[in-house]
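Memo to structure team: turn this sequence into structure tokens by end of day. - J.P.
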Amino acid sequence: MKFKKKILIFLTGAPAAGKDTQAKILAKKLKAKRITISEVLKDYFEYKKRRFIKIGKTLIDLKKEKENFISGKLVSFKFVSWLVENIIKNNLPLKQNLIIVGGPRSLLEAKNYLNLVKKEKINYLFICLKISEDEIYKRTAKRKRIDDVKEIVKERIENFKKYTLPAIKFLKTKGEILEIDGEGTVQKVHQNIWKEINSRLNL
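Reply from structure team:
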């Protein structure tokens, strides 16, 4: 299938909402480059040996950020935003469709990404997969991953409420984000996403 426009999709949502699963399906269908923020951070910390970087007037301690990442704590939103913005800029002009998985996670990131796509006149779409708190616990219990123990899941949910929900609400007030029910079957969720993508972007 050929598409008239190259597009950039941001896929966000609560923990265990199915972001990675849906991103993989979309990437195959759109022939898109899929970029997962957690993987970007992992690669950056593995290969970059610098101790500090300066972003604007802020000095970022990469050793501390790496320790936070490894321990499961939040990495600086300014640092994450800087990384993602550079990835987008390095892919301009878009020669293939691009999917950013796991962002925005904060209000700062939402504002920065929105400003960037508008400034660069990129065809873009923000998508949020919505699931209930009960569903999060059900899914993480089935996965039985080490990082999905109940205490850690609870912390991830609290971080989502504290930092990511304000970003989603901001984009929603701007009419800039699609909210998709993520509690159906994988195929049903994909069908709903695909319907909205076609409707919004006229692929």
